[in-house]
Amino acid sequence: MKRAFGVFLAGAAALLAAAGTAFAMCAPVAEGPRARAWPAVDLPAELPPRGSVEISYVGHSTFLIRTPGGVSAATDYNDHVRPPVTPTIATMNRAHSTHFSHAPDPGIKHVLPGWKEGGVAEHNLAEGDMKVFNVPTNIRNWEDRTTDYGGNSIFVFEAGGLCIAHLGHLHHTLTQEHLRRMGPIDIVMIAVDGSVTLTQEGALEVVEQIKPKVVIPMHFFSEVTLERFATLFAGRYPAKRSESPTVILSRASLPDRQLLMLPGH
Predict the structure, then answer these.
(1) Is the dihedral of CA 186, 88, 197, 60 positive or negative?
(2) β-pairing, 246-250 with 187-191?
(3) Which of 27, 55, 131, 231 is the most buried (most CB within 10 A)?
(4) Number of domains making up the chain
(5) How far apart are CA 175 and CA 260, in angstroms?
(6) CB-based contacts of 265: which residues, under 8 Å, 6+ apart?
(7) What is the pLDDT along the chain (265 residues), one digit of tens a residue?
(8) What is d(CA 105, CA 186) in angstroms, rounded to the nearest whole number?
(9) What is the 3-state secondary structure (H, E, C) of 184-227?
(10) CA 176 to CA 255: how far, in whole Å?
């Protein structure tokens, strides 16, 4: 895995001219201190009220999702950017080392990798008032320039009466089978870097395929990239900037359509 990440960085360097500053700003995250909590996240002392869910943007592709019953899940859990508390559930993808952990906190009850060596990952977990399942997707293999079919996953979280899809390091638009397996989605977390995952136009196409109420961008590396994505969405999803990296959402409070931008990178 370490060798694959090294090859990934070498290959990504060749993309910088076309991708602008996007991946250049990813490297410091990958090279920074291990297992550091993102300082901007200050979790509320109280759990979210019944019928709602709390979402905190920790950084990069990591969110912390908390339920009224106290179950928590960290997405794309890794060794560089971690939530300020040990989650009950950790999901991971394997695009590069800022999306998975070599040494998950032993206090995590369920660690769900989005891949399976020699096969396809299958997860369908119920823990307290949260359910989590995965939908396998494909990923570019940076080492041998091929495609790993079923080598990554979308993770869907059912909590607080809402369905939340974290699309991970998605490299392609979705098929009808992907959409069928995901089911209706209220909130989507999608990478919008426009270079090492999908183009921003491709990300927009995926959002239009899923048709969520709320879109939360991630994996954008810079404000310039995020603003470009917001401009692309203009007229489709009205943009809202949250002053806090933590929001509480419920079915009753969901907007019809919203691009919800949380502080962080």
Answers:
(1) positive
(2) unpaired
(3) 55
(4) 1
(5) 25
(6) 25, 59, 60, 220, 221, 222, 223
(7) 434 434 333 443 333 333 333 333 333 344 443 444 444 588 999 999 999 999 999 988 899 999 999 999 999 999 989 999 999 999 998 766 677 799 999 999 999 999 888 889 999 999 999 999 999 998 766 566 666 667 789 999 999 999 999 998 887 899 999 999 999 999 999 988 767 778 889 899 999 999 999 999 987 878 898 999 899 888 889 999 999 999 999 999 999 999 999 987 6
(8) 30
(9) CCCEEEEECCCCCCCCHHHHHHHHHHHCCCEEEEECCCCHHHHH
(10) 26
Pair of tokens at residue 128? 């307290």
Q: What angle do CA 249, 57, 185 make, to 5 degrees?
A: 45
Sequence-ordered list of residues with C-beta below 8 angstroms from that of 171, at least 6 positions apart, any chain: 137, 138, 139, 140, 152, 197, 198
Q: Are strands 72-74 and 89-92 parallel, antiparallel or unpaired?
A: parallel
> What is the Cα–Cα distance from 191 to 10, expressed in whole angstroms?
21
- Identify the bridge partners of residue 155 per DSSP, sorted by sequence position: 134, 166
- The whole domain housing 22 covers 2-261
CA distance 32 to 29: 5
**CATH number of the domain encompassing residue 95:** 3.60.15.10
Q: Considering only the C-alpha atoms of the chain, give the largest distance between any 2 of them, rounded to a whole number of Å.
A: 49
How far does Cα 254 stand from its chain's mean position?
20
SS3 content of the chain, % helix, strand, coil (to 5): 20, 35, 45
